[in-house]
Design brief:
Radius of gyration: 17 Å
Number of strands: 5
CATH topology: Thiol Ester Dehydrase, Chain A
Number of domains: 1
Distance between the termini: 44 Å
Shape: globular
Low-confidence stretches: none
Strand content: 25-35%
Number of helices: 2
Bound molecules: coenzyme A
CATH class: Alpha Beta
Oligomer: single chain
CATH superfamily: Hotdog Thioesterase
Structural class: alpha+beta
Strand order of the largest sheet: 1-3-4-5-2
Helix content: 25-40%
């Protein structure tokens, strides 16, 4: 079952042009995804990576926004969560405005990674998401290796 968050866009959430701040949406995405990760792992989690944060269409003041988060992949201590954001029109029609993938790591009291339960994949759609998640993971781990090399002038603390 997805973890969901529903929100009416208020004046404090928009810029001068009446459009939702991207950073505000990212905060809602982070929270709903973290709750999905906590529910799956039954553990505290920390955010390790965010990718493919794609803003497909604008969101405006007074729109009803629905965020829906699903676990798509699990590893030994990490898991991927997909968050889809929709504008829900008054007719009930839902329009996809953003899709994001986030990786969380389950952590113990010392902040060290801890083992998590595997995701049970039952449907063809879930299997396809899993396969695509494996591709995204390989890409991320490649980026991670690249990102961990020191920048010019950077030294160990
Ligand atoms: C995330 C964190 C706990 C990982 O710790 P670590 O000692 O590097 O742990 P490991 O290298 O053993 O990795 C643990 C798992 O995370 C995964 N992982 C770590 N960084 C990752 C990244 N950038 N992308 C994808 N997966 C990543 C590893 O593949 C591993 O997964 P697995 O156990 O399912 O195979 C650590 O880097 C951390 O605390 N980072 C800061 C997190 C934070 O403050 N988040 C809030 C952001 S404001």
């Amino acid at each position: 079952m997805p973890t969901q968050h529903v929100q009416i866009v208020m004046s404090s959430h928009v810029n001068g042009a009446g459009r939702l701040f991207g950073g505000q949406l990212m905060e809602w995405i982070d929270v709903v995804a973290a709750v999905a990760a906590r529910r799956h792992t039954r553990s505290d989690v920390t955010l390790a990576a965010v990718d493919a944060l794609e803003f497909i269409a604008p969101v405006h003041m007074n729109d009803t926004v629905l965020l829906s988060a699903d676990v798509t992949w699990t590893g030994r201590t990490s898991l991927e969560v997909c968050v889809e954001t929709f504008v829900e029109h008054l007719t009930g029609r839902r329009q996809l405005v953003n899709r994001a993938y986030l990786v969380f790591v389950a952590v113990d009291d010392a902040g060290k990674p801890r083992q998590i339960p595997p995701l049970t994949v039952t449907t063809a759609a879930q299997r396809q998401e899993w396969q695509q998640a494996e591709v995204r993971r390989a890409h991320r781990l490649g980026q991670r290796q690249f990102g961990q090399s020191k920048a010019p002038g950077e030294t160990d603390a």
